[in-house]
Specification:
mainly beta; Glucose Permease (Domain IIA); Neuraminidase; ten-stranded antiparallel beta sheet; five-stranded antiparallel beta sheet; 1 helix; 33 strands; 1% helix; Repeat domain-containing protein; Dup_hybrid_motif
Length: 428
């Protein structure tokens, strides 16, 4: 994939200006019950009771009362209520303005505003509301209007029309994953993306992930980013949509809040960050919000800034010393245990994994890979869609390779594209 650049006027500013990304929506939903469990579809799209604009794209699963119901994708609980028709219902908002609705539950296990991870229990099946027996009614809808929308299951590629899917037994692959949305998904389609600043025009370019190991052609989403030295992507504001943090050369940290289709104007959320030589993000504290960790220039001390879930961060807390020897640092959930980890590059080129325990504490380093001194940029993200953070690495000739995480080690590099030497800043 050769990069193509969009020419235009460069606006010089310490805080870059943003354009709107193209709209995309999550379309990767796991079956709404735990991995390895099988249930039978009792009604599909346009079935006898799925015949209105709010219900036509629902799917019913027959199951006994008290069966575990799992979130089909990470997100934030938008609604949790009891009604005459739907019974006990939970609605989860996902990136891009799509919601999943789980109805006729006997128990609701989550409250409005709670972040939920993929595969997390959100309730138990039942027979509340207008039903003839215990089952789960599941549908995907527009969060703003409630209108039903088409979608597909990860585990089943066939038609969900009533005549095709009714009677089929579907086995789930829905394993627990990270809360609050795909960590670096800025467009709301369920795949992590890459942000990069071009060295010739200081524009910020988005490479939209859309399939395992696949990136769309770049498009400019911001200008005037020449004064930025660190860019972070993640869900920082508690709405399940991907956001951007930019730290400029003055040490100011600006938040660009995303909604899956656009970004806000920059909002100053911190100062004094020019003392940090590296800053990375993941949920290090286990509270379901993205935190920040930075290595202080000079001292090599490691500091935690716990996320508050509203785009702000707590005062720094020193975690450790002796981190000044790291030549690169990235973060994510590399082993898919729902805890933020660190990966640091040592002076000898080894990558070491520091497993997070979910309480801002980390394991002793374990070798994750070697031979990384020839890699000129490390870019974290779940680019394979398996729930584990991978690393994309740029070589000296401008080739970008994907190194998939296997939990305890990184796999061999697979080329994602060439011509990446034209960028001089990536998300960290």
């Amino acid at each position: 994939m050769r990069k193509t650049l969009i020419s235009g006027l460069v606006i010089a500013a310490m805080a870059g200006t943003m354009a709107s990304p193209a709209q995309a929506v999550t379309d990767r939903f796991f079956l709404p019950y735990p991995a390895g469990v099988t249930h039978t579809v009792t009604q599909g799209w346009d079935g006898s009771s799925h015949n209105g604009s709010y219900t036509r794209y629902a799917v019913d699963f027959g199951m006994p009362t008290g069966t575990t119901i799992s979130a089909s994708a990470p997100g934030v609980v938008q609604d949790s209520y009891l009604s005459d028709g739907w019974g006990n219902t939970v609605v989860v908002k996902h990136p891009g303005g799509r919601c999943t609705r789980y109805s006729h539950l006997s128990v609701r296990s989550v409250d409005v505003g709670a972040k939920v991870g993929q595969g997390q229990q959100i309730g138990l099946s039942g027979a509340t509301g207008h039903v003839t027996g215990p089952h789960l009614d599941f549908k995907v809808e527009n969060c703003a209007t409630g209108l039903a929308e088409t979608w597909s299951f990860v585990e089943y590629s066939g038609s969900l029309d009533n005549g095709s899917v009714t009677g089929k037994q579907l086995t789930s692959q829905n394993k627990p994953g990270a809360a609050g949305g795909a960590a670096r998904d800025l467009t709301g389609n369920g795949w992590d993306d890459i942000l990069a600043r071009n060295s010739s025009d200081d524009k910020l370019y988005l490479y939209d992930g859309f399939a395992p190991g696949k990136l769309a052609s770049p498009r400019a989403i911001g200008t005037g980013w020449g004064g930025t030295r660190i860019v972070l992507t993640g869900e920082f504001t508690g709405d399940a949509d991907g956001d951007i943090l930019g730290i400029n050369t003055d040490g100011d940290m600006n938040l660009y809040a995303g909604n899956g289709t656009a970004f806000s104007a920059p909002k100053l959320v911190g100062t004094g960050w020019n003392s940090m030589k590296s800053v990375v993000t993941a949920d290090f504290t286990g509270e379901g919000t993205n935190d920040l960790i930075g290595i202080q220039e000079g001292s090599g001390d490691l500091y935690l800034y716990a996320g508050n879930g509203n785009g702000t961060f707590s005062a720094p807390r020193k975690l450790a010393s002796g981190w000044g020897g790291q030549t690169a640092l990235v973060a994510g959930d590399f082993d898919n245990d729902n805890h933020g980890d660190l990966v640091g590059r040592a002076a000898n080129g080894d990558l070491n994994l520091y497993r997070g325990y979910g309480n801002a504490q980390f394991s002793a380093p374990a070798k994750f890979s070697n031979g990384w001194n020839g890699i000129t940029a490390l870019i974290p993200g779940d680019f394979t869609g398996d729930g584990k953070t991978d690393i994309a690495g740029r070589t000296s000739d401008g080739t970008l390779n994907l190194y998939p995480s296997y939990g305890t080690t990184l796999g061999s590099g697979v080329a994602l594209g060439t011509g990446w030497n034209g960028h001089n800043l990536y998300q960290s």
